């Protein structure tokens, strides 16, 4: 895990290295072990290193391949680098280091961008070939590792974090401007990471599973090198009819092999353990490959409703793991949130970033790499709305027998109230007339929704939080459930294997039934980082939060003034937590992130806002 930054002059003149150094300064948390900036004529390339594989000086970047053909600045891990290096050596290739970085570069140079389909890992990389004056930028399949870009008439700029790009702009006298459409979308929907443009005009997200070539100053088109829908369809056709039993066996193999690869490290590795099914699966399989495994959990003292420590402890006991728990005091939210938002760069959809921050802080006391369970819900259908979408899909297909079987299962497992609630949600989808947000022509509405949330909405947000909150403490976070083989496998499964009679994530539960305790596999009380915000609003914190929102120019402009009814409701612990959180987050971002950026850059005005006189 590292940070990368670069500036390319499109007219082939030399950029000032000071701009790249300014970028690295504001991202220094991403690489405490080493730092280097190199100039290559029209390109200045910078790198911050967090040493994970081959932590000796031989891993320093920017790194050249053994033949001197190209240089790379690389952020991420190539988990199957040992296998790829062995194959390359068998063909006569030479390597000067034991790093995955050199394998990535050498293989890419020998076989071209399409070889990334053989890479199992997470990355954002910049590769410079001086002889051709060619810059290649690329990003992993799911966008686990971040990359942002900006261009003007003379420069193409890229960095691992938004603040890196902003630092370059300020260093050359460019004043960043607010992207008002992005802010409005966030305050209306909570969506940030599915948008192409960030909160700043002209600062864009580099798309996942794409690469871009700039040759002799000419910027080519973004090219997609992996398509999840197409791969899932190919696997479905290759497999033919898929029985539940054969799918369960394949799932068990893929889970264990993914954890075996993701456990490779030359520094200590731990697991973020919430007590839910996904993180418990990661801990269980990781325990087979990591001796003396440590796990890290957070909880709130407000009561059992707000923590899952009982379930995390059950996993620790079952596998003999060393568990560590941090109780989180909500009173520190106001003081902590500015730091969280500094590292996130943009506001968050939900308050889960607050307990997640404390988990990462706890883990950093003992390990340098953490494994986390992100992706399980989106791959296997873990959230409640997915159940209603599947039921609606059954109605659309005219399968009333299956519809009744699934609904009866939820009635039996959770009671009549749950089944009635699901029935109402199906009616709501029908009345909305939007077929659960599925594209035209989609026959399996649940799989279409899962693909959307994996690539455009929910998961990209969770991956931003995962990367930034771990890097805030100079740790690498890995998400083994998003191993590309597991991802393709899950999306290739028929939706009938994801929601069973009375159970979400049915396939995953079956796959873990012989591994985890029944109290984890067949839990009925999914929580997922619940946070007692509305309870806190009834205490001393409430008026301070309301005042923060009221004094925010951005909130007033894009969401309007808080009404007296809203204020009374929130101070009484009522109303929409989602709407309240967006306002808290945006107000704090405005008042802390922008001022910190100005302070870091010694700039009096880091951004123009429409409402300023």
UniProtKB/TrEMBL annotation:
It comes from the Bacteria. This is asparagine synthase (glutamine-hydrolyzing). Belongs to the asparagine synthetase family. The keyword Signal does not apply. Its EC number is 6.3.5.4. Keywords: ATP-binding, Glutamine amidotransferase, Nucleotide-binding. It holds the Pfam family Asn_synthase. Residues 2-217 form the Glutamine amidotransferase type-2 domain. Pathway: Amino-acid biosynthesis; L-asparagine biosynthesis; L-asparagine from L-aspartate (L-Gln route): step 1/1. It catalyses: L-aspartate + L-glutamine + ATP + H2O = L-asparagine + L-glutamate + AMP + diphosphate + H(+).
